[in-house]
Amino acid sequence: MVCLLAASKHPMVIVKNRAGATKSLVATDRFTTESDTTPPAGKGAGFRPHELLEAALASCTAITLRMFADAQGLALDVVTVSVEVDRSHAEEVVLSTTIAFEGELSDAERKLLLKAARSCPVRKTLSKRFSFSEAEALG
């Protein structure tokens, strides 16, 4: 596993699942967490896969806003981002993001921050058309 990760330009995410379990170990070369599905199919012993998707967008948005606020000298004390995935439409997925700012910010600065949130790299990635490829590992 280490060789695969070292050869990648970006940290690769690898998920391992053992027979008889829905709980999976999610790992990069530096961090691990667990993923599972909800009962009764699973045991709810980790993040649901869609929660990981929501977390990716929320955390990237928060980091983007922190970096922007710091670079602009804005008095942003805390930013809280929540994301919810709505998959109820057959042809469209809606990612609803709510952003709360704490700090001495003017209305203009709040609007500027909301605009900056759109520059989050994960949002840009999720806004593109996707294609998928699968390959079986040899060995």
Task: Write a short abstract of this structure.
The protein has 139 residues and is an alpha+beta fold. Helix content is 34%, strand content 22%.
Overview of this protein structure:
The chain is α+β, with helices and mostly antiparallel strands and 139 residues long. It has two domains: 2-35, no CATH class; 49-126, K homology (KH) domain (GMP Synthetase, Chain A, domain 3), CATH 3.30.300.20. 34% of the residues lie in helices and 22% in strands. The strands form two sheets. A three-stranded antiparallel β-sheet has the order 1-2-3, with no helix packed on it. A hairpin with a 6-residue loop joins strand 1 (14-17) and strand 2. Helix 2 (49-72) crosses helix 3. It is elongated. The chain starts with a helix and ends in a 13-residue tail after the last helix. Mean pLDDT is 91; it is low at 1-8.
